[in-house]
Amino acid sequence: MCDVQTNREIWGTPFPIGGEWDAGYIRRLGQPASLVFVRRTETAFEVVRREYRPDGVGVNRVVKVFPVAGLADDEVDAVEVEAKCFALAYRDRGG
User: Fold this and answer.
1) Of 88, 86, 83, the residue nearest 43 (C-alpha)
2) How far is the C-alpha of 5 from the C-alpha of 52, rounded, in Å?
3) Are 94 and 24 in contact (CB under 8 A)?
4) What would the pLDDT profile of 6-42 be if each residue is shown by its tens digit?
5) Residue 73 half-sphere exposure, CB side, CA atoms within 13 Å?
6) pTM of the model
7) Which class for 10: exposed (0-12), middle (13-18), buried (19 or more C-beta within 10 A)?
8) How far lies 46's CA from each of 14, 26, 28, 29, in Å?
């Protein structure tokens, strides 16, 4: 695993539905930057890549889904960490 904290560890509350956690940008020479982030839905954590077109408009692409439906709070927190670690690794290797 990697060294990230859950929303519960930082703020004392679960990661909010609809909330996003920014993993940073992928930058490639001669190409617009892409933002990688983790988004929480009712049933999953999604790792999303927002690719910016030359006109500046961002287009979201879901890279991986980490389901959490039916899991206990501590299990959801573990999946949150897994999704964040995946997002950081995805960013670091350039997508």
Assistant:
1) 83
2) 28
3) no
4) 999 999 999 999 999 999 999 888 777 899 999 999 9
5) 8
6) 0.92
7) exposed
8) 16, 17, 23, 27
Whether the Cβ atoms of residue 91 and residue 7 lie closer than 8 Å to each other = no
Residue 85 has which token pair?
């670690």
Pairwise CA distance, residues 92 & 77, whole Å = 23
Query: Could you please report the per-residue DSSP string of the chain?
Result: --S---HHHHHSSPPPTT-EEEEEEE--TTS--EEEEEEE-SSEEEEEEEEEPTTS-EEEEEEEEEE-TT--HHHHHHHHHHHHHHHHHHHHTT-
